[in-house]
Design goal:
Length: 261
């Protein structure tokens, strides 16, 4: 009975209705809904979703949505996934002042001008216009200066298209990216790596050395971490031994019994 109900809920729906929202969340009052996942339902019309005034997380990926007007009233929304739809106009999102994480990869956003409406969203720190994992993109991403322009437009963002642009890890990522681009630019000639006698190390010899802190708290935490890691390795060895014994015992039981005549 439950599987039948799930199949009915997963069937394509053209318009979001109060009945649909209540049935999928179990909430009687639309204003009580905080999280909503409506992925891959074939939705064309967002209907009454704007009545979910306290909605914080919304996943509408994999639908046929093109008009975002009903989302303009969702002032508390901070995570929004609109990937794989038919969206070209992001203007209604201008009112979603709490928005922090936005995914619009796999739509039909055609130009940089379509992104200006998002500049007023001061809390926005994670934007995705393309997703290489699922081969999602937007026409705007074909612009050769797309990345630089977007970073200038949104100086406060921390992650663009799944790549960290500021904070921990960003420097290493940029370094690896620069290396790849340099290699592609022509360090190889006739399939062979060209040697340069004047090459110098990019960092000092001691750059990769682990620097221990003088902070007693950090040192103690480091020590405890190593002890926990050691215990995990011991447990892993014991588990491996028990599993091998069990497998050996089961294999013996499966062997046919032999009787002497």
């Amino acid at each position: 009975m439950d599987s039948k109900r799930d199949k009915e809920q997963d069937a394509d729906v053209e318009k979001i209705t109060a009945v649909l929202l209540k049935s999928r969340t179990g909430e009687f009052d639309l204003e009580s809904i905080l999280f909503l996942k409506l992925r891959g339902l074939g939705i064309h019309d967002l209907g009454c979703i704007g009545e979910c005034m306290n909605l914080e997380r919304l996943d509408l990926s994999g639908n046929n949505v093109s008009n975002l007007a009903p989302l303009a009233s969702l002032r508390l929304l901070f995570v929004l996934n609109l990937s794989a739809n038919r969206i070209s106009n992001l203007e209604p999102l201008r009112s979603c002042e709490s928005l922090q994480n936005l995914n619009v990869a796999g739509n039909i956003i055609s130009s940089i001008e379509n992104l200006h409406c998002l500049q007023s969203l001061r809390k926005l720190e994670n934007i995705r216009f393309k997703d290489n994992t699922y081969n999602y993109s937007n026409p705007v991403c074909r612009n050769s200066s797309y990345r630089n322009i977007v970073l200038e437009m949104f100086p406060n963002i921390k992650v663009l298209d799944g790549e960290r642009v500021v904070g921990r890890g960003s420097d290493l990522y940029q370094l690896c990216k620069d290396i790849d681009e340099t290699i592609r630019a022509g360090l190889y000639k006739n399939g062979q790596l060209v040697e340069h006698s004047d090459c110098k190390p990019w960092v000092e010899d001691s750059y990769w050395d682990i620097k221990r802190s003088n902070n007693a708290i950090i040192d103690e935490a480091y020590k405890q971490f190593n002890e926990v890691l050691h215990e995990c390795r011991l447990l892993n060895n014991r588990a491996t031994h028990v599993i091998s014994q069990t497998e050996r015992s089961m294999s013996l039981k499966k062997q046919p019994k032999q009787y002497a005549i």
